[in-house]
Amino acid sequence: MTTATYPVATRMKNVSSSAIRDLLKHAAEPGMISLAGGLPAPDLFDVEGLRHASAEVMRDVPIAALQYGVTAGQPDLRNALVTLMKSRGATVDAGEIVVTTGSQQGIDLMARVMLDAGDIVCIERPSYLAAIQTFALAEAKFVGVAVDDHGMDVDALEKMLDTCASMSQPKPKLIYTVATFANPSGATMSLERRKKLLQLAVKHQVFVLEDDPYGELRSRGETLPPLIAIAKTIPGAEAWCGYISTLSKILSPGFRIGWAILPAALRNYAEIAKQGMDLHTSTFTQAVAARYLESGRMAERMPSIRASYKERNEALAEALKRHLAGALTYTQPDGGMFLWAQWTDAKINSAALLKFALPEKMIFVPGEHFYADAPLTHSIRLSFATPTPVQLEEGIRRLAVAVEKMRAATNGELAHAAE
Ligand SMILES: Cc1ncc(COP(=O)(O)O)c(C=O)c1O
What we know:
15% strand, 2 domains, globular, 14 helices, Aspartate Aminotransferase, domain 2, Aspartate Aminotransferase, domain 1
């Protein structure tokens, strides 16, 4: 067959396939221990509870669950999400919620609604890979703001916004933040910084989008309110922030249920954009999720889900101490699914190391994929979500072997980038 050159849109030439989705192919190989994807632990799926909720839906509301639905989402689910948001410290009306097909669609909707080619998006450095991908597809330009243990460096953000204002340069249109247990950094933005971020948003009239898939997965420390809740205490801030979240990490990613809470005008645009994407999110999974949430079963199970991720989080930290003591610098996260680290020997290129880890049957994500530009090549993301504590121990042992093999193969010269 002859290969054709298709006249694809220019924007497709600037994006590549997600490194993580590509790595997931290896995760399925027999014997592989994957610390790569942020896949929820398979033992935490409530198969029984969801079987029950599905049966109830087919018994009680089969027509509504099988029929087309409204774009903003099914009323039952939106009501159940109001209760869920209340437990997270945010009071919202059902009418403020747009159900999305995963929170990934929430990111895409915001990109479609807000960004023209060349517009600036402010992201954390490092940031969620698929958000970078989505904004790149919208042909955005990126400005990265450093992250430390307390989240985005809002003082650096302030300087950048002040410079834009004083030099009459174009300012960012959107600030995207994963404020709690960020992917990949694991960092959580402090309350002080949350407030300052909102004040900056109001002062410079820049919209802040908080993406919150992991907030419920706290292993230790105090819960912090989402930005939309804090915004109620800062004059003008409610107009300048939005929130997206998902049931993926606490119920099932296969359901593809997320939601967006946006100011009215943006919500309206988001609904129009969503009409063009998928008309609405699956009515069937919305109905099952609504039944499940209403049953109270998820609220009941959350403590044991948290405990399980805490155990995994600690098992990974223990394994790192045992097998790679001193080789990596990191702060153990207070929750979420990811540990972010840098090799103390900055010559270790994580992408090159992955090639030595694969034959040892372990995978991770090289940190370089989480940067829109100027990547830190000696950074690495280790997910503790999917493997058991025993597998985490073995996975890190294999990683240590991979480091040794790479050292031996390169005569200690580790500075080879992956081809
Ligand atoms: C920060 C962040 N946002 C969004 C998503 C997408 O999740 P969903 O399954 O809800 O589309 C993920 C998934 O890993 C994520 O880490």
